[in-house]
Amino acid sequence: MRILQVASEITPIAKVGGLGDVLMGLSHELSWKGHETLALIPFYGLIDTEQLIPEGRVDWFDTEFDKVKQRACVTYYHTHNNISIGLLDTASGYFRNRQTIYGDGDGIASFLFFCRAVANWLLTTQRQIEILHVHDWPTALLPSIYQILSRGKAPFKSVLTIHNFEYQGRCDWSDIRRAGIDPLDFSDPSILNDPIHSCANLVKAGLLSADVVTTVSPTYAREMVTPEEGQGLHTILAGLGKKFVGILNGIDYAFWNPEIDTYLSKRYSGSQEMEAVRAAKLQNKARLFFQIDVPLLPDVPLIASITRLVKQKGIYLIRDLFAQAEELNVQCLVLGSVPEPDAKQAFAELDRDLRRKGRGAVFLMSDEAFAHRVYAASDIFVVPSLFEPCGLTQLIALKYGSIPVVRKTGGLADTIVDVEESRPTSNGFVFQSAQSTSFTTAVTRSVDLFKNKVAWDALMLRAMRQDFSWNIPGNQYVSLYQSVL
Q1: Residue 426 lies in a domain
Q2: Same domain, 212 and 361
Q3: Residues 5 and 37: beta-carbon distance below 8 Å
Q4: Phi, psi torsion values for 70, nearest 5 degrees
Q5: Do residue 313 and residue 183 come from a single domain?
């Protein structure tokens, strides 16, 4: 099949969260399975093209923004693992002038312009695709915009994947008009009406116009059709019936794999003897603590969190737990971007407290290489999300032998089985209530088991050998694509 993936980010060149990892991993898997796949994103100024291999091809075409004709282009590259990537920009450098992916310049209007430009590119080049797969609110309106501009039935089928239903692209009607699209151009303009606010809702329009809608885990799909998690659109989702499915995300073991990870001081794998795995993790931990200038305490577990420090991720549960590091006799490390000033202050204070007591540190940033080293060094990995569509960090942690402690929600519930269930797939610790006492109890259970080296080694080995690759979800997406053709 010929598949076009259109999104706002892709790892490693433009990443904020899990969406970037998913686009990279799914595109890689589809290509490996023999499908002609192109991933298309804006050509942001932050993109380091040194990480890409140019193909020497550029498509030029005309588009429009703010009632002004724009000359635009798609430049073709591929990655070192042979993912084909297109970067879209204008002759004036509209996207290259952006130094962030979200929250810079024209906000939502800029992604509507991106959608308009992609539609113009498809029409001008007459690119032959069978599946147009769009991701989240930034590209949800693309199939509709194409339909309006082409004035006819699209020659492809469209798939919309929701990665986080909290973000729906609510915007003013004027944002849509800036992309040269009048809401009245829609065959049914009401599909844009937000069910709660007096504004447009891009995700709602995407749900009602896509040929099929997916989300990133089966449990999250069930949660999304409830009033509590449906964000005002639960009845629309329920009405989609079999057109709405949950497919669990995978992770790309070509990128997340301690056996081949070039960022690590010492590589290791689940096929080794556990003595060698323990020694490698200890070497990675010692190197990491030397780098962060914190004394390493012997035989004390390192608990880590790598996350965007936003409310959804249960960050105040993390803060309250890590404040007890001395009482729990653990060391702690947090790595994450922090958009909220209050959270930034809270975690800066936690960093000072942890460092003063020699119990760890907090790093308020995004750093790919550092993240790999934290996974390898940590013993326990916490994900106390209030809600979590899928979660990739717990899957990465498993591969690196860092045992997850997670709240039972969304994709966390689909991937982590509590050790007390004594099942062959038991791989971590699970708690129900989004309360500090419940979270602390689960972490205490993990710390207690850490002291039992035989039981902990068996748990680590089981975790590292589990398969959460893109193979199975890749097959599910291929079947889904074929079902709508």
Answers
A1: yes
A2: no
A3: yes
A4: -125, 135
A5: no
If asked whether residues 193 and 302 sit together in one domain, one would say no
Q: Considering only CA atoms, which of 472, 26, 385, 411 is closest in space to residue 222?
A: 411
CB 371 within 8 Å of CB 15: no
Query: Are the C-beta atoms of 392 and 248 separated by less than 8 Å?
Result: no
Q: Are residues 215 and 126 in the same domain?
A: yes
pLDDT tens profile 3-27: 999 999 999 899 988 899 999 999 9
Six-digit token string for 455 = 């039981």
User: Is 281 in contact with 287 (CB distance < 8 Å)?
Assistant: no
Judge whether 377 lies within some domain: yes
**DSSP structure class, residue 10:** B
The structure tokens 């290259």 sit at 96
Average pLDDT over residues 50-54: 95
Contacts of 406 (CB under 8 A, 6+ apart): 382, 383, 384, 385, 388, 391, 394, 412, 416, 428, 429, 430, 431
**Mean pLDDT within 398-413:** 98
Q: Are residues 98 and 193 in the same domain?
A: yes
Say yes or no: 153 and 220 in one domain: yes
In a domain, 262, yes or no: no
Q: How many domains does the chain have?
A: 2
Q: Which residues contact 147 (CB under 8 A, 6 or more apart)?
A: 153, 154, 209
Asked if 384 and 317 touch (Cβ cutoff 8 Å), the reply is yes
Q: Give the three-state DSSP class for 39.
A: strand
In a shared domain, residues 221 and 324:
no
Question: In the predicted model, is pLDDT for residue 279 greater than 80?
Answer: yes
**pLDDT class for 105, splitting at 50, 70, 90?**
low
Distance CA 451, CA 440 (A): 17
Helix (H, G, I), strand (E, B) or coil at 350: helix
* pLDDT for res 381: 98
Q: What percent of the residues of the chain are helix, what percent strand, and what percent coil, each to the nearest 5?
A: 40, 20, 40
Whether the per-residue pLDDT at 181 is higher than 90: the answer is yes
pLDDT of residue 467: 97
